[in-house]
C-alpha cells in the first residue's frame, strides 16, 4: 500500500526539533542539526527513537554520523491558512505545507529547494519516494567519466563509484543517511524533477541550505572530518610488481633515486604482508616474503623508507584457523549457514565478520600492534564483493551488508593507524568508494591511459569524486609505450594532484626517456617536492572546511556559469587555477573566472578575470595562475622527502597581488592582517619573498609589511 503524507499536526516543539504526527501513525521529525542544516526523519515513532537503539544499532549509527546532536534552534511560526508551519534558523527556513504536502526551503527569503507533492511510503516495497523540483545542475553522487552535471539513474547497491551526497550551485545539498539501497532519478535535463527512492523502513536525509563551500563544510561535519595523512604519503610513490622480490624492488627504487627520480613511498604488492596464522586467531609478519623481521623493521618501517603495506581480511580455506573461526561464527556465512568462501587471486578465503565486535577488535588491534610507532600506510586488497545470500552474524545481508562491511573494515584500520598519534594520522589505499572516503585519504582510481582522451577521462574521475565531498584521490602514471608528449602532460597534471604512483614494471620509467626529456621530468619532480607544504596544507584545511584538493569550476565559482563550461580546468586548493593541456597541441583556451584577478606563474603577467586566453604552453610547463589576494608557500628543493626538515618547512613565498588571505600551508603559523591599505604578516622569518609587480616589501623584525609602491 502506498502511504502519502497529507494531514499533519505539530505534536511536539523543542528548541532543536519539531515533531509532526500524520494520519497513518507515522511521525515526521525535523531537526536543526546546524545552521542551514535540516535533518528530515519520517517513519513509525519507534523507528525514530534513538534512545531505544540496542548496542549494535548505536554502533552503526555512530559509524555513519559524527555529529548527531542538534546544535541550532528553530523559531516556529504557524502560517495562514492553517496546516502550514515555518521553521527558521538564522537566514534559512523550511516551510511545511499540507494539502498538497510540500517542503519549501529558503535562504535569505529566497526559495532555494522545494519538494513536489510526492513524499510517501510504499509498504509493499518498503520504499520511500521523495521528489524535488529542480532548475539547475546537480553534482556529486560519486565518480564518473561522464558529464559533471549528473543525469539519468544512479543506483547505490553494489556501486563502488557511488557516494550518497548531491548538491547544486542553487545552494542546496542532500545526504541520504541509509545503508540500504537508494536510487537517484535525475532526468535528462537541468529542469527535470529529481526523485529519490530509499528502500528503508524509515526516511533519514539531511538537507543543506547554504553556498556550495558551506555545504561541503557542513557535510564533512555530519559524517566526520578527514584524518591527516603522513607527510611522505603525499610524495612520489613506487609500486612493487607482482612476484617481484623485496630486494629487487628496493634496488630498483635506489636506481630511481640515483638517476634523480627519488621515490618517497614504497607500495608493496598483494598479498597481505601479515597474513593470518594457520592455527590461531592472529596475524603476523610474513618472514618468507620480508626476511628477518628485525632487519625489516629497522631498514624499512623505522628507517629511510616509507611503506604502504597490503592487508587482507581473508582467512585461508583449509587451515585450522578457518575451521575454528567457522565454528565460532566469526566469518561471514553463506545460505547454508556455513562460512562463505570467496575466491581471490591468492587462494580461497573466508572473510572475518567485522559486524561481530570480537572479530572487529582482533582485526583492528592486531594492526595497531604490528604498526605501532611507525608512519606506515595500508592498502586494503580485498574487493569485498559480497553477493546476495551472504550474511553476517546478526542477519545483516544483501545491499545492507554490502554497504556496511567496507565501512567497518576501513574504520578498523583508521583506528589502528591513528592510535597514539597527535594529531591523528592515517592513510588507507583503496579503490571502492564509501562514506569513509570522506574521512580518510588514500582513495585511488585506476585509469588505462593510452591516449589524450584517456587523460581527460582520468581528470573527470578526479574532479567528479572530489565534487562528491571526497577530499582527495590519487592515480598511477603508466603508459603502454614511450610517448614523450603524453607522458609529460600526464606528469604535469599529476604534480597538481593529491599524489601519484610509478609502477616498477612500467615501460615508461623516467630513465627510459632521452636526456632532454629526463631533464624536464626532473623539473616536475622537484616542483612536486616544493609543493608538498601546500598540498598537505590543503588537506589540513579540509579538516576545517571539507573542501577537496582539486575543485571543479561549479564548486569553486558557483556564481560564474561561464566557468562551469571549462571542465578541463580546476582550482588546486584555494590559490591556484590549473588548466592542463589534454591533447597533442600546445595551446589551450583558459577562462579566468570573473570577479578575480589572476597572475600567470609562468610569465608573471596579471590578468583581470572574466576573459578567455588562448594560452601557448610547451611540454616543459603547465598553465597555472595564482589567485589575487592569495599566496603560495613553497618548500625547499628536496631530492626526496626523507630530507624533509620539520624546522624548515618553507623556503619561499610567492605573492599574488596584495595578500589578503592567510596562506594554506602545513602547520600554518603565518597570519595576515590588513591595516590602512597595507598587509602585515607574521611568520615569514627567513623566507624569500617574491612579490608581485607594484608591491613593496619591508621587514620589521618578525613582521613583514606589504604595501603598494608609491
Automatic annotation (TrEMBL):
<dbReference type="InterPro" id="IPR000322">
    <property type="entry name" value="Glyco_hydro_31_TIM"/>
</dbReference>
<keyword id="KW-0378">Hydrolase</keyword>
<keyword id="KW-0326">Glycosidase</keyword>
<dbReference type="InterPro" id="IPR025887">
    <property type="entry name" value="Glyco_hydro_31_N_dom"/>
</dbReference>
<dbReference type="GO" id="GO:0004553">
    <property type="term" value="F:hydrolase activity, hydrolyzing O-glycosyl compounds"/>
</dbReference>
<dbReference type="InterPro" id="IPR017853">
    <property type="entry name" value="GH"/>
</dbReference>
<dbReference type="GO" id="GO:0030246">
    <property type="term" value="F:carbohydrate binding"/>
</dbReference>
<dbReference type="Pfam" id="PF13802">
    <property type="entry name" value="Gal_mutarotas_2"/>
</dbReference>
<comment type="similarity">
    <text>Belongs to the glycosyl hydrolase 31 family.</text>
</comment>
<dbReference type="Pfam" id="PF21365">
    <property type="entry name" value="Glyco_hydro_31_3rd"/>
</dbReference>
<dbReference type="InterPro" id="IPR011013">
    <property type="entry name" value="Gal_mutarotase_sf_dom"/>
</dbReference>
<feature type="domain" description="Glycoside hydrolase family 31 N-terminal">
    <location>
        <begin position="28"/>
        <end position="157"/>
    </location>
</feature>
<dbReference type="InterPro" id="IPR013780">
    <property type="entry name" value="Glyco_hydro_b"/>
</dbReference>
<feature type="domain" description="Glycosyl hydrolase family 31 C-terminal">
    <location>
        <begin position="546"/>
        <end position="631"/>
    </location>
</feature>
<feature type="domain" description="Glycoside hydrolase family 31 TIM barrel">
    <location>
        <begin position="228"/>
        <end position="535"/>
    </location>
</feature>
<protein>
    <submittedName>
        <fullName>Glycoside hydrolase family 31 protein</fullName>
    </submittedName>
</protein>
<dbReference type="InterPro" id="IPR048395">
    <property type="entry name" value="Glyco_hydro_31_C"/>
</dbReference>
<dbReference type="Pfam" id="PF01055">
    <property type="entry name" value="Glyco_hydro_31_2nd"/>
</dbReference>
<dbReference type="GO" id="GO:0005975">
    <property type="term" value="P:carbohydrate metabolic process"/>
</dbReference>
<dbReference type="InterPro" id="IPR051816">
    <property type="entry name" value="Glycosyl_Hydrolase_31"/>
</dbReference>
Amino acid at each position: 500500500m502506498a502511504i502519502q503524507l497529507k494531514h499533519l499536526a505539530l505534536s511536539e516543539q523543542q528548541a532543536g526539533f519539531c515533531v509532526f504526527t500524520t494520519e497513518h501513525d507515522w511521525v515526521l521529525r525535523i531537526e536543526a542539526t546546524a545552521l542551514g542544516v535540516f535533518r528530515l526523519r519520517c517513519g513509525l515513532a519507534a523507528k525514530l527513537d534513538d534512545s531505544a537503539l540496542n548496542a549494535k544499532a548505536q554502533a552503526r549509527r555512530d559509524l555513519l554520523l559524527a555529529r548527531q546532536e542538534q546544535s541550532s534552534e528553530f523559531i516556529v511560526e504557524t502560517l495562514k491558512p492553517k496546516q502550514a508551519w515555518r521553521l527558521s534558523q538564522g537566514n534559512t527556513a523550511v516551510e511545511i505545507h499540507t494539502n498538497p504536502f510540500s517542503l519549501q526551503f529558503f535562504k535569505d527569503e529566497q526559495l532555494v529547494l522545494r519538494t513536489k507533492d510526492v513524499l510517501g511510503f510504499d509498504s509493499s516495497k518498503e520504499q520511500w519516494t521523495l521528489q524535488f523540483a529542480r532548475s539547475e545542475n546537480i553534482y556529486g553522487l560519486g565518480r564518473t567519466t561522464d558529464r559533471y552535471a549528473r543525469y539519468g539513474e544512479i543506483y547505490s547497491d553494489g556501486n563502488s563509484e557511488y557516494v550518497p551526497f548531491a548538491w547544486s550551485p542553487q545552494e542546496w545539498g542532500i545526504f541520504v543517511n541509509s545503508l540500504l539501497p537508494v536510487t537517484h532519478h535525475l532526468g535528462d535535463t537541468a529542469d527535470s524533477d529529481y526523485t529519490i527512492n530509499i528502500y528503508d523502513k524509515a526516511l533519514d536525509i539531511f538537507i543543506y541550505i547554504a553556498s556550495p563551500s558551506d555545504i561541503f563544510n557542513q557535510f564533512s561535519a555530519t559524517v566526520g572530518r578527514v584524518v591527516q595523512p603522513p607527510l611522505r604519503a603525499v610524495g612520489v610513490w613506487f609500486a612493487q610488481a607482482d612476484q617481484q622480490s623485496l630486494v629487487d624492488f628496493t634496488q630498483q627504487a635506489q636506481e630511481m633515486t640515483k638517476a634523480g627520480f627519488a621515490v618517497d613511498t614504497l607500495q608493496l604488492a598483494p598479498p597481505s604482508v601479515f597474513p593470518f596464522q594457520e592455527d590461531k586467531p592472529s596475524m603476523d609478519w610474513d618472514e618468507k616474503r620480508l626476511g628477518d623481521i628485525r632487519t625489516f623493521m629497522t631498514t624499512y618501517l623505522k628507517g629511510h623508507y616509507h611503506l604502504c603495506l597490503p592487508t587482507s581480511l581473508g582467512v585461508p580455506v583449509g587451515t585450522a584457523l578457518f575451521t575454528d573461526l567457522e565454528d565460532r561464527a566469526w566469518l561471514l556465512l553463506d545460505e547454508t549457514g556455513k562460512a562463505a568462501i570467496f575466491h581471490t587471486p591468492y587462494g580461497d578465503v573466508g572473510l572475518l565478520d567485522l559486524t561481530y565486535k570480537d572479530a572487529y577488535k582482533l582485526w583492528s588491534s592486531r594492526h595497531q600492534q604490528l604498526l605501532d610507532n611507525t608512519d606506515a600506510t595500508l592498502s586494503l586488497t580485498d574487493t569485498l564483493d559480497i553477493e546476495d545470500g551472504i550474511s553476517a552474524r546478526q542477519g545483516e545481508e544483501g545491499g545492507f551488508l554490502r554497504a556496511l562491511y567496507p565501512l567497518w573494515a576501513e574504520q578498523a584500520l583508521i583506528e589502528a593507524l591513528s592510535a597514539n598519534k597527535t594529531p591523528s594520522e592515517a592513510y588507507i589505499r583503496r579503490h571502492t568508494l564509501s562514506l569513509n572516503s570522506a574521512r580518510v585519504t588514500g582513495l585511488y582510481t585506476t585509469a588505462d591511459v593510452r591516449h589524450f582522451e584517456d587523460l581527460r577521462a582520468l581528470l573527470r574521475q578526479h574532479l567528479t569524486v572530489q565534487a562528491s565531498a571526497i577530499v582527495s584521490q590519487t592515480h598511477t602514471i603508466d603508459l603502454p609505450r614511450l610517448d614523450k608528449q603524453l607522458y609529460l602532460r600526464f606528469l604535469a597534471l599529476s604534480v597538481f594532484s593529491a599524489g601519484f604512483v610509478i609502477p616498477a614494471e612500467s615501460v615508461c620509467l623516467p630513465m627510459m626517456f632521452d636526456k632532454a626529456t629526463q631533464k624536464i621530468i626532473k623539473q616536475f619532480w622537484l616542483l612536486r617536492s616544493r609543493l608538498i607544504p601546500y598540498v598537505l596544507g590543503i588537506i589540513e584545511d579540509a579538516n576545517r572546511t571539507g573542501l577537496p584538493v582539486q575543485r571543479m569550476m561549479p564548486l569553486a565559482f558557483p556564481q560564474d556559469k561561464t566557468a562551469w563550461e571549462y571542465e578541463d580546468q580546476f582550482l588546486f586548493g584555494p590559490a591556484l587555477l590549473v588548466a592542463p593541456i589534454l591533447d597533442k597541441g600546445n595551446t589551450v583556451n583558459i577562462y579566468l573566472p570573473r570577479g578575480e584577478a589572476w597572475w600567470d606563474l609562468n610569465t608573471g603577467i596579471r590578468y583581470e578575470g572574466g576573459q578567455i586566453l588562448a594560452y601557448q604552453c610547451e611540454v616543459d610547463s603547465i598553465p597555472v595562475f595564482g589567485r589575487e589576494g592569495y599566496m603560495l608557500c613553497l618548500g625547499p628543493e628536496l631530492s626526496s622527502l626523507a630530507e624533509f626538515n620539520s624546522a624548515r618547512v618553507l623556503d619561499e613565498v610567492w605573492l599574488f597581488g596584495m595578500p589578503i588571505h592567510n596562506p594554506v600551508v602545513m602547520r600554518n603559523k603565518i597570519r595576515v592582517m590588513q591595516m590602512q591599505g597595507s598587509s602585515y604578516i607574521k611568520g615569514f622569518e627567513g623566507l624569500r619573498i617574491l612579490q608581485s609587480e607594484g608591491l613593496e616589501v619591508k621587514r620589521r623584525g618578525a613582521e613583514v609589511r606589504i604595501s603598494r609602491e608609491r
